[in-house]
TrEMBL record:
Protein keywords: Cell membrane, Lipopolysaccharide biosynthesis, Membrane, Signal-anchor, Transferase, Transmembrane
GO molecular function per UniProt: Kdo transferase activity
Enzyme class: transferase
Pathway noted in the entry: Bacterial outer membrane biogenesis; LPS core biosynthesis
Protein name according to UniProt: 3-deoxy-D-manno-octulosonic acid transferase
Cellular component, GO annotation: plasma membrane
Domain 3-deoxy-D-manno-octulosonic-acid transferase N-terminal span(s) in chain numbering: 37-215
Positions annotated as active site in the UniProt record: E63 (proton acceptor)
E.C. designation(s): 2.4.99.12
């Protein structure tokens, strides 16, 4: 009863906040028009109806890419079932539509706001028989509606940092109720499982199955295409700063300026995380007076200092064309991004200090001397110079990264087996 009242209060506050959420999305749409498109979907009006479906939620682009091998395996194994993928962001939506364009049994919609009547409408239109949630996206009303409509819910690739667990413990009464509504949690590590159990998840409903982000495939023609791109660059020293956020690009460009003083033929491949920042970063490069080209225009000039990766879905190609990888979202307090992508290509990995989203991955890479954390532009420039000056060291660190990647595969099959048990 008390939890129901708390959830009702939360729902009322969410409703009151909707005008402000809409204004925020409208402001963001000035840079990414996707935020003002398909608004009806956020109120539960899916562009399709299904007699029965499997609902899979991955909040944004990174999660959508990570879960893709599992979704494809499910779609191929159950060709007569319809899979409804929901995301929250336009970049996630674009990625989903690109990943599954050849799958007739996979549909996409934005997830409704976490308000009971909107979720009821979504459920009525899609009729999910199972809800699969990626990593940490648990919402009170989503779980409550799944329970009310007898829809089992599974949290896969689940992670819970100590910082988050401490915060959730302050609302322990609420978390206990939410976790008990989840049918099963597939945790990334023992530590994650222990934290979920401490918050109230029944021990018999949780398993430790690893991180699905170790299980992504490498395209057969990737290395060949990367080599062709490198030949166009005609540069001996290439590094990439991938998935950068606002506030990081200045640090990266300052690092590159320092690097050019000792390595004049160095090329920086700069890939902003969000498409709405592509033009902003281009202006920043221009302000710093670097010569540069756009990937989207398929152009390159031999005197370029910077190659702007302003396309979607080509991160692995750009990683493969580089010698050293810096993974962004780590100089700002964003928790970093997927270090396993460059690791899978045997690249030495550099990162800023903020890696809480990939804490266990970072620890494994550091233990094998495959990852170096840096705190500022000076330290990053120093590490780049060190690796460029010592190709054997760079190769050793890259091979160590690849070993970590290969030794931790297997989560995909384990998570597939769990889901299969709910589909029988």
């Amino acid at each position: 009863m008390i939890y129901t009242l708390i959830r009702l209060t939360y729902s009322l506050l969410f409703c009151l906040g909707l005008p402000f959420i809409s204004i925020k999305k409208l402001i963001r749409s000035r840079k990414n028009k996707g935020y003002r498109q398909r608004v009806r979907e956020r109120f539960g009006f899916t562009p399709f109806k299904t007699d029965e479906s499997i609902w899979i939620h991955s909040v944004s682009m990174g999660e959508s890419i990570a879960i893709a091998p599992l979704v494809k395996k499910l779609a191929l194994s159950y060709p007569h079932k319809t899979f409804v993928i929901t995301t929250m962001t336009p970049t996630g939506s674009a990625q989903v539509q690109k990943l599954y364009k050849d799958f007739g049994n996979i549909k996409h919609s934005y997830i409704p706001y976490d308000i009971p009547c909107l979720l009821k409408r979504f459920i009525k239109r899609t009729n999910p028989k199972l809800c699969i949630i990626m990593e940490t996206e648990i919402w009170p009303n989503l779980l409550a509606q799944c329970e009310k409509h007898h829809i089992p819910s599974i949290l896969i690739n689940a992670r819970l940092s100590q910082k988050s667990a401490t915060g959730y413990a302050k609302i322990g009464f609420i978390m206990r109720h939410m976790l008990k509504q989840i049918s099963h949690i597939s945790a990334q590590s023992d530590d994650d499982a222990i934290r979920f159990i401490a918050l109230g998840m029944p021990q018999d409903k949780i398993s430790v199955d690893g991180n699905i982000k170790y299980d992504f495939p490498i395209a057969d023609d990737l290395l060949e295409n990367a080599q062709s791109l490198r030949q166009r660059f005609a540069k001996q020293h290439i590094w990439i700063a991938a998935s950068t956020h606002q506030g990081e690009d200045e640090i990266i460009l300052e690092t590159h300026r320092k690097l050019l003083q000792t390595t004049p033929d160095a090329l920086l491949i700069l890939v902003p995380r969000h498409p709405e920042r592509f033009n902003q970063v281009a202006e920043l490069i221009k302000t710093h007076k670097f010569n540069y080209s756009y990937r989207s225009l398929d152009q390159y000039h031999h005197n370029d200092d910077v190659y702007l990766g302003d396309t979607m879905g080509e991160m692995m190609l750009l990683y493969a064309a580089s010698d050293i990888a810096f993974v962004g979202g780590s100089f700002v307090n964003n928790g970093g991004h997927n270090m396993l992508e460059p690791a899978a290509l045997a690249k030495p990995v550099l990162s800023g200090p903020s890696v809480f989203n990939f804490a266990l991955v970072a620890k494994k890479l550091q233990n094998q001397h495959a990852l170096t954390l840096v705190n500022n532009s000076d330290e990053l420039a120093k590490q780049l110079q060190r690796l460029f000056n010592n190709p054997q060291l760079a190769a050793s660190q890259g091979n160590a990264a690849l070993t970590v990647f290969q030794q931790n595969k297997g989560a995909l099959d384990k998570q597939f087996s769990i889901i299969k048990g709910f589909l029988c």
